[in-house]
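[agent] plan:
  1. take the single chain provided in the ticket
  2. run structure prediction with default settings
  3. attach structure tokens to the ticket
  4. add a short note for the reviewer (M.T.)
[agent] executing step 1
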Amino acid sequence: MTNTTMCGDEAQCIQAQSTTYCRCRRGFQKVPDKNFCQDVNECLRFGTCSQLCNNTKGSHICSCAKNFMKTDNMCKAEGSEHQILYIADDNKIRSMYPFNPNSAYEPAFQGDENVRIDAMDIYVKGNKIYWTNWHTGRISSRELPASSAASTASNRNRRQIDGGVTHLNISGLKMPRGIAIDWVAGNIYWTDSGRDVIEVAQMKGENRKTLISGMIDEPHAIVVDPLRGTMYWSDWGNHPKIETAAMDGTLRETLVQDNIQWPTG
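[agent] step 2 finished; step 3 output follows
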């Protein structure tokens, strides 16, 4: 039997002065207490690929999801030159093109002294931006300034003031903090740290429903993943934690509660 046959395809034969031994090739690892090598699944290690990972014998292949392209081993969204970054700063919202080195801040919204924007989210399909104002206890929206879409007629659930700003008719809000848009079903989710609840309503404020109450102290940020039907929120109260649940409020679960103090985003 040759040394190559003795070591197999997964290992290489190492000849020293007084001995010969097998060493696992790159992409393989020795099985504990066994005399053979097995493939290393690099895809089980977080961060191996930017997005998609396919394990192969002795190696792996990285790829990108739909609408992304591979650049320098990273996945970058297609059409990035048209992407806009919106930034909330106290009582105003500005925009810029992050991939355009010549881009400057452009004003998207300027509120008065009563406006204190805590969180915001974009409803791309509806061409609107939504934000929470903890200072006045309101949730407001406005059409994106770049839009050419005509404003729809006002109705009993909203009223237009402050240069096209819509204050949603949601009563009883004390301190709305986080906000997230479900762009699939067309719903709006928010946290109210004054009432210690997480709620949902349609985009104009109708059919409001409380999803989470109890065992929640100071809910802050919230995000939703409508494609998976889940939501996530941070709680920075006396028992700080990060939790998740289905978007109807069921299947509630704590994700992080140890070694965490002030989770606000």
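[agent] step 4 note for reviewer: The first strand starts at residue 11 and ends at 15.
[agent] ticket updated
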